[in-house]
Amino acid sequence: MRVFYRGLASLEVGLLSDARDQFVRASELAPREPAIHANLAVARVGVGDDEGATTALETAYALAPDSAAVAFLQGQLASFSGRSVEAVAQYRRAAALDADHEQARFALAQELERGGAEPDLPEARRWLEEVLARRPDNLAVLLERARWAARMEDGDVLDDTIERLTRRSAAWPELAMEQLQGLSEAAAGGDLGRAATMAQLLRNVLVRTPAFREDLAVVSVSAEQIAAPLMRFLAMPSPPSTAAAPDRTLAYVAERIQPVAQGTVEAAALAIVHGGEDGTPAIVATDGESVRRVGGT
After folding, report:
1. Where does residue 249 rank: exposed (0-12), middle (13-18), buried (19+ CB within 10 A)?
2. Where residue 55 falls among pLDDT bands split at 50, 70, 90?
3. Cβ distance 68 to 84 under 8 Å?
């Protein structure tokens, strides 16, 4: 199923029309593979075909109703289209289907917090704390927690988060250290409004560092993507990643070549060239003064 992986490669580099065409072809070859239809939905959203994306996503769901990966993708595309209520529902379903789906939990916490409804904020905190329990030193999660704690005026949680951030700050750039100091001072002085601002400023600095980007990739989809495509099949077996068996019939035989010109001078260099009417490659040799074809004239 090369077209599936060509579609993934096209998505990765932003060739959305090509990705769509590859996944359409893949869906014709394997119409009952949910991952193909799910990725086709991503590509179609990218080219502005919302109706086609909806159809493809419905097909993926019908083929794999209990897939957390499909549910998470449904949530991402709903969030991308501004349908927050639907996104929350799909993220909840993905989290229920897969107890280890950290990205669904982190996305759910963010979606609930963005909604701003007061009754949803405690739930947002629970999901965030659940991710933190699995990733206690994750910078992306800690900074989200610091901002949330400052907003909710929870000084104890903010102090705990600052302490954790400080333990990870040894290799931070100078500007990040200044922002962390400002965050600590704001929290110590009880100015939690300023602390929320400083937490965001600290994130803006750290987002350029490899450590933060690596941590963010663990719990969140890249901001450069519409949604994270499914990287492997859900119904069909994925091709093995093992190397092909060695060709033990292959052998090399050393043979002495004829002199380049009349006499006894051996070749100083060899080269393989492609040419001739039939395109057959040929070996040529030179002694520095003349050139001749090995085994020919």
Report:
1. exposed
2. very high
3. no
In this structure, which topology does domain 2-219 adopt according to CATH? 1.25.40
Query: What is the residue type of 184?
Result: S
**Which residues are paired to 283 by β-bridges?**
272
Tokens of 247: 């060709």
Which residue has 């090399």 as its token pair? 252
- Using CA atoms, how far residue 62 sits from 40, 98, 99, 127, in Å, is 15, 18, 22, 28
271 DSSP β-pair partners: 284
> Whole-prediction pTM value?
0.77
Give me the amino acid identity at 96: A
Cβ-proximal residues to 76 (8 Å cutoff; 6+ apart), any chain: 87, 107, 221, 226, 227, 228
| 71: its two tokens | 């549910």
Which of 56, 50, 14, 12 shows the shortest CA–CA distance to 36? 56
Q: Rounded to the nearest 5°, which phi and psi values hold at 188?
A: -65, -35
Percentage of residues in the chain with pLDDT exceeding 70? Answer: 91
CA pair distance 129, 145, nearest whole angstrom: 8
Structure tokens at 177: 């250290």
Domain(s) labelled CATH 1.25.40.10 in the chain stretch across 2-219
pLDDT band for position 65 (cuts 50, 70, 90): very high
